[in-house]
Amino acid sequence: MAGRIAQADVEEVKARTNIADIIGERVALKPAGVGSLKGLCPFHDERSPSFNVRPQAGFYHCFGCGESGDVYSFLRTMDHLSFQEAVERLAGRIGYALHYEDGAAAPESSGRTRLFAANAAAAEFFRAQLQTPAAEAGRRFLGERGFDAGAAAHFGVGYAPQSWDALIKALRARGFTDDELSAAGLVSAGQRGVYDRFRGRLVWPIRDVTGQTVGFGARRLFDDDKGPKYLNTPETTIYHKARVLYGLDLAKRDISRGDPRRVVVVEGYTDVMACHLAGLTTAVATCGTAFGAEHITVLRRVMGDESAAGEVVFTFDPDAAGQKAALRAFAEAKRFNAQTFVAVAPDGLDPCDLRMRKGDGAVRTLMDAKVPMVEFVIDQRITGYDLATVEGRVGALRAAAPVVAELRDRLLQPEYTRVLARRLGLDPEDVRREVQRAGRAPDRERAGSRGESAAEPVDSAAPRITLGTLPPGKDVLLERDALMGFLQYGHRIDAELLARAVAAPFRHPALDAVRVAVAAHIAGAERAGWAMTAVDAVREPYRALGAELLAADFPARDEDGAVASATSLARALLGRALDAEKAELLGAVQRVPADSDEGRALRVRLRDIDLERHRLRAS
User: Fold this and answer.
1) Contact 486/511 with Cβ under 8 angstroms?
2) pTM of the model
3) Sign of CA dihedral 106, 110, 113, 115
4) Cα–Cα separations (whole angstroms), residue 39 to 24, 47, 396, 522
5) Which H or E run contains 549?
6) What tens digit of pLDDT does each residue of 86-132 get?
7) Which long-range contacts (CB under 8 A, 24 or more apart) does 585-593 make?
């Protein structure tokens, strides 16, 4: 068994990896000051971004929940990897050959890494099978829906042969065990052993937001197949249907760059394909489950959902199932800051059928027919009531008033109260009172349904020293800003000046604890990652403060200006230390004879201090 990865390789892989690229695959990051990026935290639910990334330092920190670390800790937390698996994944990404302490070659990884590898191998197998004569039914299915070979290749569509063990044999030949295939959800178990889960089906690879295949969705093709129309991968350690969205790996770039940032949520794999090929390249779909809270969390991070400027458009079938799905989506959609809409084709076609019958342009114009989700849900609630009768109008009001009462935006609520009044032909004041009554109903857990709970503190019992808890004062501001500048730009500050600036104790104890760690690691400031090493060395309970100082916005117009400012702060600290020493020496010189050796030494040091102060002012 191979030993540990050589530490030099661990450092080299981290130095060659841009942490912003890795985090940016999951979180929409925006510039937030010199050398800093900001987005919605992937570790807790928040409405405004407090998650900062400093690519140059290879460091992230959330000012909301306190999570911080480097690119390895990010992958380990997000993907539940071991440290070695995280290093190996990044090394594979950049094509770096790792060395191990016992001199062995890279080992065959275990656990989650093997499951990803098994799914990738299965996807390759299915794609190749689609080109075989046996897959004629699959190719015909795609062709009848307007998808050619290029479209199938773009989305990775494949074919599972009508065989009990074709995939098993292919993956065994590549070194995968039956246990690994079972853990990946690729096989099922029977009395005679394992057999292929997907047989005689068209297969779509389901990828996570980073593009790794985590599972499959398979469509029945043959009449003698008594299984469900669509069969998905079961829940595994890497596939959770409540957290994945089909097509997000292809859509995320256009989602994050759109103006406005728009996501189109459709109902099936072929609908995603149709939308993308028609030009709606931000379409995604759930995988065998209803759209829920965890899907929203994923989308909000990709969108950078921090204002009402974005759009989330749901497409639903006009049948009873589609209407039920719309109502479920409405219950969750209030978690978005973005505006939510519903788009239904005039003749009730889904995007795939709409493209087949009317072409790409009809799919694109579907967005022109979108209506606010609130209006759509109101209309669904009042459907079935006879609005020509008093009883019907009152019943419709009672059904729709809770929808308006749940609106989070206090400016929208009175507007939709008037909309509802017009829909029903009732007095606006009567409608307003009913909305207020619905909002006061004791059995409605409105706060919980909105998902507006604040992030839980990391440890409410432990005192947490942060930038926000530091007291005001000239000395505190100097020490705070200096440490911020040193941690972020220490590699570009004169090494001797920097070492002398952090040599003297600081006056605030929390900031002094950070200074001690910085001083202990300042000799390696030219090395990538030194600042994070220094932060990790800060003694508790001050480590979170060190992380915030490394991640916080350092006020400057550009990096050169930041370096100049940090250098100036280093001189200010050194000057303060010299002034303090001078004051102490002036007191001491009064207590010793002027012609004594000690007196003469004190006066020489006072002269040197004045010269140093002069050089500092002149520099």
Assistant:
1) no
2) 0.71
3) positive
4) 9, 10, 42, 30
5) helix 543-551
6) 898 898 888 888 888 765 555 555 578 899 999 999 999 999 999 99
7) 585/609
